[in-house]
Hints:
39% strand; alpha+beta; 3 helices; globular
Amino acid sequence: MKIYIILITTVLLFISCSKSENKEKIRNEILLTEKAFEKMAAEKSISEAFYHYAHDSAVILRENDTLIKGKENIRAYYRKMDNKGAVVNWAPDHIDVSSSGDLAYTYGWYIWKIKNENGDTTEYKGIFHTVWKRQKDQSWRYVWD
């Protein structure tokens, strides 16, 4: 009987450690995805970055109460904004992963810096919350931002 208890305890301990290690691995994947997303926004464009990292059915909340639904509509929303001279930076302060490992969420700070025609910069600071979903190809796409 003692052998069964030791065996069961060992198996449970192993499962618990492997889940914990897996969650940490996924947290790191999400952090790297957030950084790549931010880099694309700086190097390519804000609209293309928000398009690229969006799930097909993604939804973003903007302007206090406006929901923009779908990847194509998100791209169109950012393209019609006057983003010339705009820079956005963000970093997650918290990353959590579902027990199944296929969903995760982040939240943290962001700063939009927008230069006007006179070269003056206006800053907008806030908090973001993003929900990420693992895709069949193992990449991550946001479903909510």
